[in-house]
Amino acid sequence: MTHACEAVKTRHKETSLIFPVLALVVLFLWGSSQSLPVVIGINILALIGILSSAFSVVRHADVLAHRLGEPYGSLILSLSVVILEVSLISALMATGDAAPTLMRDTLY
């Protein structure tokens, strides 16, 4: 009989959270810098953080999809992708100039 307090072991490690946290720390410390290499470095680090977060979300949704089975698994995968798209489009629309074709151009 197994013990109820045992930790569930998976083959995945949760190291993908390091990049977004590191990007936030770097942005907090050097975000107001006007130096071009610093700005490029912050943008590259932010891109790595966004991509690692997106792949982590998809990986978790894939694990849940395999555990829950066919009808619910497909819904979870679809919802995770839609939420990622909506969050990225919302972040894009919240910054910058108001462009009427921005929503259309980001979707197509």
TrEMBL record:
<keyword id="KW-0812">Transmembrane</keyword>
<dbReference type="GO" id="GO:0015385">
    <property type="term" value="F:sodium:proton antiporter activity"/>
</dbReference>
<keyword id="KW-1133">Transmembrane helix</keyword>
<dbReference type="GO" id="GO:0015386">
    <property type="term" value="F:potassium:proton antiporter activity"/>
</dbReference>
<feature type="transmembrane region" description="Helical">
    <location>
        <begin position="72"/>
        <end position="94"/>
    </location>
</feature>
<feature type="domain" description="Sodium/calcium exchanger membrane region">
    <location>
        <begin position="40"/>
        <end position="107"/>
    </location>
</feature>
<dbReference type="GO" id="GO:0005886">
    <property type="term" value="C:plasma membrane"/>
</dbReference>
<dbReference type="InterPro" id="IPR004837">
    <property type="entry name" value="NaCa_Exmemb"/>
</dbReference>
<feature type="transmembrane region" description="Helical">
    <location>
        <begin position="16"/>
        <end position="32"/>
    </location>
</feature>
<protein>
    <submittedName>
        <fullName>Sodium-potassium/proton antiporter ChaA</fullName>
    </submittedName>
</protein>
<feature type="transmembrane region" description="Helical">
    <location>
        <begin position="38"/>
        <end position="60"/>
    </location>
</feature>
<dbReference type="InterPro" id="IPR052946">
    <property type="entry name" value="Alkaline_pH_Ca-Antiporter"/>
</dbReference>
<keyword id="KW-0472">Membrane</keyword>
<dbReference type="Pfam" id="PF01699">
    <property type="entry name" value="Na_Ca_ex"/>
</dbReference>
